[in-house]
């Protein structure tokens, strides 16, 4: 990472060896958890006193080797331009942040910050704040789809973070009263870039560097010993389901590097049928049951008795695993993705 400030010394990148990388990752993750309770080659990110760090992952490794992972330093900034070209500027380090998307909660936890309000259940996970501490965080009425602008602003936020394709329409109601930032991660590299940008704005740069190093280390270790089993992530409610595919689902984007994952996004053309899934002979099936109010039965139970479902190798061999959709489907950040890696590799 370089500085545009004339005469400023070049920061030294964090560098670890194979001997020390696991200890650093574990220690960094533990330190971040305690603090919360109290794809291609990345290019060089730049910033100056005015603050315009590039929306990059800030690393010189390819994400596939734990032997020599380098995470570039992050410089505090008052203005950033994110991975998708959105510019965000704050007059001071944001302290009162409202999260409309779980990625925001994930990033804040990594940085040791608690949001002043949220509409996600992610914080209740034991590797985030836990149920008791999460219960102290106010919930924005209106839910994820339609959060109420008046309720958001009642928390006097100096930064609101939402999802572009869902919350972008709130901009006219929020932009004159606060700083509104919409994100749209497509892969884990985007997630790291957003974390680095938020760290620059909040000044929590050390925390973000440690979180990035911990995640990259976990990913590199998982990719160093990939499984040859065929995996699949499905999501849905009732008998309506979709296949999580790289490019549209951040967690699914991890799987081609750690298992055989032959699923690609079909965009508006639709998803896969049970017949097509059966043809791929899935060995391990991860299921995200999405609830839209009420006590929905697990998706794997809904399909029980369906002849095609019962014919799947994963079903016959007892390798169907219900996973937490708050983490797997909604979290999208480095802490959530680290949990996904740990849970997936233990079962593959």
UniProtKB/TrEMBL annotation:
Name of the protein: ABC transporter substrate-binding protein
Annotated Fe/B12 periplasmic-binding domain residues: 96-348
Localization of this protein: Cell envelope
Keyword Signal included in the entry's annotation: yes
Biased composition (Low complexity): 48-60
Swiss-Prot/TrEMBL keywords: Signal, Transport
Keyword Transcription: no
PANTHER family: IRON III DICITRATE-BINDING PERIPLASMIC PROTEIN (PTHR30532), IRON(III) DICITRATE-BINDING PERIPLASMIC PROTEIN (PTHR30532:SF25)
Family listed: Belongs to the bacterial solute-binding protein 8 family.
GO biological processes: iron coordination entity transport
Pfam families, per database record: Peripla_BP_2
GO cellular component: outer membrane-bounded periplasmic space
Coiled coil: none
Signal peptide region: 1-38
Positions of the UniProt region annotated as Disordered: 43-65, 70-89
Organism in which the protein naturally occurs: Streptomyces alkaliphilus
InterPro entries: ABC_transptr_periplasmic_BD, Bact_iron-sidero_bind, TAT_signal
